[in-house]
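Chain A, query sequence.
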Amino acid sequence: MPNRPLVVLLDDYEHAARRLVDWSAVEALAELRVHNEPLSSDALREAVYDADALLLMRDRTSVDATLIDAMPKLKYVAFTGTRNNALDLAALQKRGVSVGFTQWGPSKESTCELTWALILAAVKRLPQAVQALQGGQWRDGGALGQGLHGERLGLVGLGEIGGRVARVAKAFGMDVVTWSPRMTPERAAEHGARAVSLDELVQTSKVVSLHLVMTEATRQLFDATRFAQMRPDAIFVNTSRAGLADESALVAALQAGRPGAGALDVFSQEPLPNEHPLRALPNALLSPHLGFVSQPVFERFYADLVEGVLAWLHGEAIPRCMPST
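Chain A, predicted structure.
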C-alpha cells in the first residue's frame, strides 16, 4: 500500500519485540521495521531517514538535533521508560514532534536482583569457580571466596532501587550505611540504614554500590581520589549510570588493586568494545547492561509502545506523552 507511514524500532538487541507482543494492528496501518543490531553514523541515518515514527529502547541510541534534522518526515517518537538522557527533547519539541514514553514495569525489582547477583558472584568468586570446573578442575586454586555477614554495605543513593538493595542486605546481616546529596538520618533510618559522609562510606564499606540519578553534580562522583580511598578488599558495584564514575580512573584503580574488584553493568560506551581495557581485568566482573532486561519488563515496554503508536496512527490522544512547550 502506498503512502503508509513508516515506523522504525531501534535496538531490539534481544529480538524480543515481535516475540513478546502483537504488532499486527500497527502493521495493518503502517510499515514496521525492527532493527536488532546497534546502528551508528551512516547506517543509523539511513535506517531512520524515512521514518514517520521512531521507537527507542531506552537510551541505547543517541538521538541528537543533527539526527533529528536528518529525519524530514518525523512526527512521533516514543522511548521505553520514563526518562531518556540521550534524546534531544528540545529539538523534537521545536519541530512539533510528539514524544511518548512507557511505564517501567518491574524494572526496579529487576535491577535490585541484578545488583545482588553481581555482588554475590564477586564475593564468592563464582565466575572463577565455574570456569575452573568447566575446564576440568574441581577448584580454581585462587583466592578464597568471602562472606557478607557482618560486613558493611555502602549505598550511594537510597531511592527505589537502593532501598530494595538495603532490605536484602539486612537479610544477609550486613551493616548498611548510605549517602546522597540530600540524605537525612530520618530517611536513611526508614530503610534500616545509617546516614554517613561519603568519605566514611567509601573508606569503610566492603561493598560500595551506586544507585544515584546522574546529574552534573554527580557526574564522575567516583574519580581517582575516591577510588584510592576504598578498601583493598572492597567491591565497587555500578548498576546505575556509567557516568557516575570516571571509567579510566576505575580501570587504573582496579589494576592497582584498590578497590579489589569491580562489578559493573553499565559502561560509557555500549555495547562495550572488544578492545576495552575492562575486558582484560581479572578482577572486573562485567554484565551487558542487564539491570532492566527481563521478560516482564520488556513485555510492559513493548505493549506500551504498541499502545502509543496505535494512538498516534489513529490520530488519538497519546498516552504518557511528554508535555509540549
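The chain has 13 helices and twelve strands. The radius of gyration is 22 Å.
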